[in-house]
TrEMBL record:
GO molecular function: nucleic acid binding; site-specific DNA-methyltransferase (adenine-specific) activity
Catalysed reactions listed for this entry: a 2'-deoxyadenosine in DNA + S-adenosyl-L-methionine = an N(6)-methyl-2'-deoxyadenosine in DNA + S-adenosyl-L-homocysteine + H(+)
Top-level taxon: Bacteria
Domain Type II methyltransferase M.TaqI-like stretches: 520-749
Keyword list, A-Z: Methyltransferase, S-adenosyl-L-methionine, Transferase
UniProt-listed InterPro entries: DNA_methylase_N6_adenine_CS, MethylTrfase_TaqI-like_dom, N4_N6_ade-DNA_methylase, SAM-dependent_MTases_sf
Enzyme Commission code: 2.1.1.72
Stated name of the protein: site-specific DNA-methyltransferase (adenine-specific)
Pfam families reported in the protein's UniProt record: Eco57I
Any GO BP annotation: DNA modification
Amino acid sequence: MIEQQRVYRIKALDSLLGFLREDLYWDLPEASIDDVSFEWTGLDLNLSEDVNKKLKDGLIRQLQPFVTHQPWGIFVVEFVTREVSIITLRQILRCFVAKRRGARPDLPAWQCENLLFICLYGENGFTFAHFKGDKPYSSRLTTFSWHPGEPVRTVCEFNLPALVYDYTWTLETWVEQWQKAFDVEKVNKDFYKQIARFYYRLTGKEGQKRELVLPYVGDDSGNISIYEEFAVRLIGRSIFCWFLKHKKSANDVPLILPEALSLAAARETTDFYHSMLEPLFFEVMNKRVKERKPLAIPRSEIIPFLNGGLFEPHPNDFYQGAPNYGLKIPDAWFIDFFSLLERYNFTITENSSIDVDVAVDPEMLGRIFENLLAEVVPETGETARKATGSYYTPRAIVDYMVEQSLKQYLLTKTELGEEKIKRLVDYGEYIEGFSSEEKLTAVTALREIKVIDPACGSGAFLMGVLHRMLVVLEKVDPRLELWRAQYLKSLDGIVRQMVEKNISRENWAYIRKLMIIKDSIYGVDIQPIAVEIAKLRCFLSLVVDELVLDNEENRGIEPLPNLEFKFVAANTLIGLPPSVETQGAFGTSEAIKKLKDLRESYLRSFGAEKAQIEKEFRATQRKLFEESLRWKSQNLALSKVAEQLIEWDPFSYESCSWFDPAWMFGIEDGFDIVIANPPYIDSELMVNLGQKDLRETIQRTYTMTKGNWDIYIAFLERGFRVLNRNGVLTFITPDKWISKPFGDALRKATIDNIFCILRSGRGVFESSNVDSIISFFSSTKHNQLKIIDSGHDRFVFKKQIDKSSLKPPFSFDYLFSDHLLILLKIDNMPKKLSDLAGCENACATSDAYKLEPLIKDLSAAFDRTCQLKIVNTGTISKYYPRWGKHEMTYLGHKYLCPIVDRGKFLSLFKKESLL
């Protein structure tokens, strides 16, 4: 580990060179930068004028090689401002990558992955940057940085030690070792493991003694979830505030001062939770400055009011305007927790799949809480992950699914053409040659888009949609000129006033994000705490793009929107009865109209106005219920639906037993994109978890749930039901449905709609050993089916299949084979195994154990009238049977001639697995 004080002593380029030479053993002579480097000018590299302006003296320096045939190209880039321009680095990258240079083929060239950039800006900090991938415009840029006064433990413990040079290395080892300095996954995994320890200390899990004491809550198993959810909220709010410490004004004043939130504050404050953190959450960040009561929090007047519900007391926060001292959290827990947070570098830059900072970033919140949500469910004793079948989707997978879904949406919605849409949506691509009309077409299409994740978890897909839409909009309308001309006048008074204020500040990113959240993205999850975390991620995404203006009211920070009508806790799979008459009756009801108006007003309300809208919403729901009593004698179905509608309270922290997009979101015509990583729960597990009644209800509701269906089958069908007539549905699921009989109904029903399958393979989900695929469907018909494979962090097109060549029941798994032509020839052979024997599914694990007592070793002549041969992978070879010639091993026992009694087998399993 590098000593932290050693890094803090690096003040400028000369001292950095000394550090690289003395501490990392780089083979550099003791000389100035001019003597150890070659200079490249913007003219040499054909850089644009805008890029040249960002470089000090318009120069880029290349450090002289340590050895002959050095694999690394090492460049020093000095910027004129603190901000390291990603666009600038990508343009420089193109200059030094083979076949990307254009006019200067005589310049030296490297692979993308063999370039290292050292960026600096005076004495204000240093950034090391590295690209991974073979294409300059889409290579993944990873950086790590340090700045004066900020923590450097991650840099000293992880990043810089990996850049040590050892002259005994082979060139291949050198490349491999230095690339480890930019492995953000290692940092993320380590951070999560550490956070989990503090969660376990609060909840008493994983053998820890519970340190959290809640008033009025006993220790019986039925109360475990109260402790768990309190712990998730506490950690979530604390880390959110920790990010706010890194959001600063031009005067370098953070939104939350260290005096209120830091290791030092925790050490100096007795009963830290009640004395500091609880009032910070509920009396400061939840109230406008003029409404706050006197507090002991240092300089609380400079901490902005945030709104959004994030810091509203939950009933199980046990706070009603004053501390409840029955709630106890040891000060030692906060001291240890903040000590952990101060060890890591935090960044408020939102990483994408191709621009990553090796630090704890806002996206890490999702990974933390998706994992914390996977804890014990008291009703079953199983983990929430096992009970809900949920797994966190890796960023690269999210980004690919979002990218392809948006491309398909734009293909359907516009006439821009595939090539231009690709340039719009892809990172790093430029859009020269787009007309004003084409740019307006893109702006209009994205203004109208509606996207839902029906199993949103912590919001990974919806945040992915938000960020990719930003990429497109920043290209076609960088100053919102097209958007303003078309849509500004249509905004209501409060929202319009806020937007105009940010236009005057030229805060384009904040406006775009707010409008996307307001108009385009929607999420549903059955776990209320998951919905709260998804909203938290939206809030943080907005805050990081706010302008902190010390002299303005609330320091220029806009109160966060209320997202209760954007993210809901509900059972996605259970809907309202699909009755045209019912929908028509509600559409004309005055109560229904008022509820819709209240939903619109609620987004930007806060304080007394917010409370009044909540009161009116509940009163209007009550009025609707009273109306339903009169409907009962006229229309029993309508009355039942009204009672269901009244059940939903968007302001509570309870999950609703049903979901309806028209009622909850005001979306009546369906969504343009339905995208999800739905739960993975098979039939056996649902029954074992006590969900038999739910399974039967789902099976009655859906037509594609046949045989031993997994729950994601129902999610796929539900996705189609909420899709509009030109929509795109994109799911990542296990691959079993593309070949197993329980997927027959789904494949037959959607054969016209599926247009792409990507085999993402095993290992996508760290905690799930599942072979997964990504499936792309459209509401419209497609005659071709694309087959794509993945490997080595890349997605590779394999083939395109004419669907007319496929036969019912349309199994897809063999389409990935490299020997497809041979398989098709075999498929056309006149005799098939199915003509000789009944072929069913492979045995479930429980079936395998049920079968074991029936297996015997044949001791006399085989009698086909009363016996069946057992044939498995151990008793059949490519071209001949091995039964009776090679022993079969089955659950630890060996059989040469395994058989079962026909009658006993059929009574136990109904159908033969193989005759």
